[in-house]
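> forwarded from #structure-qc
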């Protein structure tokens, strides 16, 4: 074995055991240097980008800033974003090097950030702070913002804690977060806490209540018709999240929580619950419903805050004739509904569903072997979907129709987004998927989540930079507008 091969093997072992992003990045940089990837990053030429035009737009934005011409800078900025955002979103740009993509991409995005900040902060003749704020808010609405979507996954879903902690510590956690089943538990725990409380949670994960699952005895199972104790799960949810409503959580944290629930009736549609669609629904009842896996837990009637009596707030059934189950059944990742309600332009998906992982573990790989795996996976997926479609039509009048509908929905829905962070396919862990984690398991799942996120960090940072800059500029403009009004 050559010296380079031995060094590469050692560095890969160190990369797999890294305990922080900084440590991981330092090792990844050495590997990229060893593999010649840093040279690839420095070379601008690639078929994936129009490098000469990108550099020309960088030059024009720089020139407009130095001439002090915000109006011209705005025009160049709009044109350059329109021309280049599509190609800059190509995931293949991030498939070569571990530490990032072409340097020209970073140079372009840095110049875009400088241009946006210049337009935000430079006074313009004939434009008040209020007018500039409205201009940025309109542009932000047109551009859109990112969302983080956390899948189901039973115990595997605890890894979402590691994913979100890794993003939070790099200031990359989106303000819009969706979750289904176990993903709903993690999403709700995050969106019901303000930044100070979230720091405390991420710094001390041992405070998390872990006893969510209790299996019924055979006698209880026969009498109740489901395998696990729902009261135990509800206690777990309330201990970790509380009993607030979607509106109260949004007002407290500033983060938009979205929880998917699936209907028990075939003619009812799945729902995405949030502060816009169901502001007074209690989060704990929504999470409980999103965790109600058929056969494992019974369906749930949602609860809502009733404020008709000013002396006492009480809970009442929400849509009392409807019952709801696991959000992964019909909408593990409610992509379309999220985009419509929150103006989402980029979806970051954290995927941990045990039945999905074997079919997507190759998704980020490149080469002949990965192509063969993708083709085989697509073929199996198509056959299963077709079989369930035929079965659904054959058994249209049967009492098993709802179960067939649920299976068909799970087989045909999308489980990936624009940027995908996935739980590694580890068959030996499947024995733990329906058991309470120990403190050691909790630390393991968190570490798996962080390690799965770090390789995607460069792509997430680049592809959400403009949205984050809009948020920062709008925040500063709001502060100035408030000072101007109070002066």
């Amino acid at each position: 074995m050559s010296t380079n091969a031995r060094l590469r093997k050692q560095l890969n072992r160190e990369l797999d055991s890294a305990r922080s992003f900084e440590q991981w990045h330092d090792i990844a940089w050495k590997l990229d240097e060893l593999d010649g990837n840093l040279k690839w990053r420095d070379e601008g030429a690639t078929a994936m980008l129009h490098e000469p035009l990108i550099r020309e737009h960088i030059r024009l934005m720089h020139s407009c800033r130095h001439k002090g011409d915000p109006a011209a800078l705005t025009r160049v900025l709009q044109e350059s974003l329109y021309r280049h955002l599509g190609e800059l979103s190509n995931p293949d740009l991030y498939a070569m090097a571990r530490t990032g993509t072409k340097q020209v991409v970073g140079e372009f995005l840095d110049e875009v950030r400088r241009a946006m900040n210049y337009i935000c902060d430079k006074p313009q003749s004939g434009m008040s702070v209020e007018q500039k704020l409205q201009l940025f808010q309109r542009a932000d609405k047109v551009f859109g913002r990112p969302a983080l979507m956390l899948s189901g996954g039973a115990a595997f879903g605890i890894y979402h804690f590691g994913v979100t902690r890794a993003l939070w510590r790099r200031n990359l956690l989106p303000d819009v977060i969706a979750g289904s089943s176990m993903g709903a538990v993690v999403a709700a725990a995050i969106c019901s806490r303000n930044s100070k409380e979230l720091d405390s949670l991420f710094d001390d994960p041992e405070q998390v209540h872990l006893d969510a699952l209790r299996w019924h005895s055979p006698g209880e199972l026969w009498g109740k018709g489901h395998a696990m104790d729902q009261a135990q799960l509800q206690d777990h949810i309330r201990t970790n999240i509380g009993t607030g409503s979607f509106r109260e959580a949004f007002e407290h944290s500033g983060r938009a929580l979205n929880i998917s629930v699936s209907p028990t009736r075939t003619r009812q549609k799945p729902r995405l619950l949030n502060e816009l669609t169901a502001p007074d629904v209690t989060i704990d009842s929504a999470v409980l419903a999103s965790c109600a896996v058929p056969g494992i837990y019974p369906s749930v009637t949602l609860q809502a805050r009733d404020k008709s009596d000013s002396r006492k707030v009480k809970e009442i059934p929400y849509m009392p004739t409807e019952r709801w189950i696991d959000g992964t059944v019909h909408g593990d990742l409610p992509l379309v509904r999220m985009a419509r309600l929150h103006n989402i332009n980029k979806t970051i998906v954290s995927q941990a569903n045990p039945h999905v992982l074997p079919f997507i573990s190759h998704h980020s790989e490149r080469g002949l072997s990965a192509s063969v795996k993708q083709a085989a996976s697509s073929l199996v997926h198509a056959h299963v979907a077709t079989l369930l479609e035929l079965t659904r039509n054959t058994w249209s009048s049967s009492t098993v129709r709802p179960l067939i509908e649920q299976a068909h929905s799970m087989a045909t829905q999308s489980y990936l987004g624009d940027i995908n962070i996935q739980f590694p396919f580890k068959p030996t862990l499947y024995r733990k998927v329906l058991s309470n984690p120990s403190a050691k398991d909790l630390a393991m799942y968190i570490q798996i989540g962080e390690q799965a996120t770090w390789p995607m960090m460069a792509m997430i940072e680049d592809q959400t930079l403009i949205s984050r800059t809009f948020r920062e500029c709008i925040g500063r403009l709001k502060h100035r507008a408030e000072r101007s009004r109070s002066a």
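QC bot note: The first strand starts at residue 145 and ends at 150. The two ends are 73 Å apart (CA to CA).
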